[in-house]
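Lecture notes, continued. The same structure-token format from the folding unit now serves as the input rather than the output. Read the line below as a description of shape only.
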């Protein structure tokens, strides 16, 4: 059986927005992925402050990925009660799908911080790293060799620069400004119906 090339896109998704979806779509084409799993984290270790309850974030992701048959929602990173570490998540994925070939997706900015993550060598032993290169960002040699063995496990792909963040969407909601076109319509409906980010 050929290994399934599964793109793994983790994050807080508070909320998920079109930037996440566009990056995943470009990754599928560029890296020859069978699918991308969107995996909201229960307790991201790098996030401090208040996070929207997991059930709301999960439902927004479910609604967003329903638009594309190549995308899949996964709750595997919602199961731990403590911090959600990438190396542990990859182990759980391979327990569920032993013949998977995980490709962990991230932006070039996140790649710079990889050496500070828990067990970065373990991460690259378990997964290929797919990095979205955006206009104006470069991945220099110091980043490529920031973790032993990283350069050989790195696959770069072009993705449009979408200057959008979940923080900006939350701020716009607080100010009663429109978020139409920034998130999928079903996600916007859910945000409004549940009074999120007000």
């Amino acid at each position: 059986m050929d290994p399934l090339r599964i793109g793994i896109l983790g994050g807080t998704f508070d909320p998920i927005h079109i930037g996440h979806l566009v990056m995943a779509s470009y990754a599928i084409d560029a890296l020859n992925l069978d699918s991308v799993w969107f995996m909201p984290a229960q307790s991201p270790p790098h996030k401090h402050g208040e996070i929207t309850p997991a059930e709301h974030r999960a439902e927004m992701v479910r609604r967003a990925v329903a638009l594309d048959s190549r995308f899949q929602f996964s709750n595997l990173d919602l199961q731990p009660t403590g911090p959600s570490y990438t190396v542990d998540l990859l182990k759980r994925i391979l327990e569920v799908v032993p013949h998977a070939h995980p490709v962990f997706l991230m932006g070039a900015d996140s790649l710079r911080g990889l050496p500070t993550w828990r067990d970065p060598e373990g991460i690259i032993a378990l997964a290929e790293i797919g990095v979205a290169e955006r206009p104006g960002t470069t991945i220099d040699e110091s980043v490529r060799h920031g973790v032993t063995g990283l350069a050989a496990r790195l696959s770069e792909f072009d993705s449009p620069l979408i200057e959008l963040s979940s923080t900006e969407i939350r701020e716009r909601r607080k100010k009663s400004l429109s978020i139409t076109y920034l998130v999928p319509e079903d996600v916007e409906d859910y945000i409004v119906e549940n009074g999120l980010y007000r």
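Point for the exam: The first helix runs from residue 18 to 31.
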